Amino acid sequence: MGRDRAAAGREAALGRAGRCALTRHSLLGRLLPRRPRDVARLIARTTDLRVEILAGSLVLSRTDCPTRAVVVRQLAAGIEEHMAVVEAPSVRMPMDPDDFVVPDLAAIAGVTDPADRTVQTKDVQLAVEVVPRQWKGPGGHHKEDWYAVACVRALLIVDPRDGTWRLCRRPRDGRYREVRSGAYGDEVALPVPLSFLLTTRRLPRYASGGPPAAR
């Protein structure tokens, strides 16, 4: 008899715990956002991660590398002498209302609101991506095709892993039709409407990088 009562007590306790767990799960389900863009905003507000949405999927990357921050600051200083620069803006992709990329920098024609980090693709004259230290891919960048599909006019990819850069221009049919490459020390001839030479001579490299790029 005592064993039966103990077993019944355990079953009742497990039942209550299960109901509490279901209640918590239902509450979290109501509190957490459902749309990918809302989830991205929540992650961006509560962490130091950079959040993007590509093809409906969340893409997270770290932004806490000091060397990468120096590269971004130096490039921004060189570009903003000629055109307004927005750091880490959300650039909406035209293919899906939820999709957006976050370049390290974007040169924007016209007046911009410093508090507004959302820009339209058509307003971006140049997007700048600094390759993260942890990226394991070959030369180039994993988001190059996304920028081309979105018809961003020009994309500058700077790679502190080996001290190189790529300037991609003339997007058509999901690809950039003109690509120029160089190494640190080579000036980047930026296209119209920027039309100036961007220096790369003082850009730092990641400490664990390989030998200097061939000149």
Number of helices: 4
Which spans of ≥5 residues are poorly predicted at pLDDT below 50? 17-29, 209-215
Oligomer: single chain
Percent strand equals 25-35%
The strands making up the biggest β-sheet line up spatially as 3-6-8-9-10-11
- Biggest sheet: strands, sense, closure? 6 strands, mixed
Share of helix, binned: 25-40%
Name the average pLDDT. Answer: 79
Radius of gyration: 24 Å
Distance between the termini: 88 Å
What letter string, H or E per element, gives the SSE order? HHEEHEEEEEEHEEEEE
Total E-strand runs: 13
The geometry reads as globular
Structural class: alpha+beta
Written description of the protein model:
By secondary structure, the protein is of the alpha+beta class. It is 28% helix and 28% strand. The protein has a six-stranded mixed beta sheet with strand order 3-6-8-9-10-11. It has a three-stranded mixed beta sheet with strand order 5-4-7, with no helix packed on it. Strands 1-2 form a two-stranded antiparallel ribbon. 28% of the residues are buried.
Quick overview:
By secondary structure, the chain is α+β, with helices and mostly antiparallel strands. It is built from four helices and 13 strands. The chain has helices at residues 2-31, 36-46, 66-79, 144-149, and strands at 50-54, 57-61, 84-87, 90-92, 100-101, 105-108, 118-119, 124-130, 154-159, 164-172, 175-183, 188-189, 197-198.
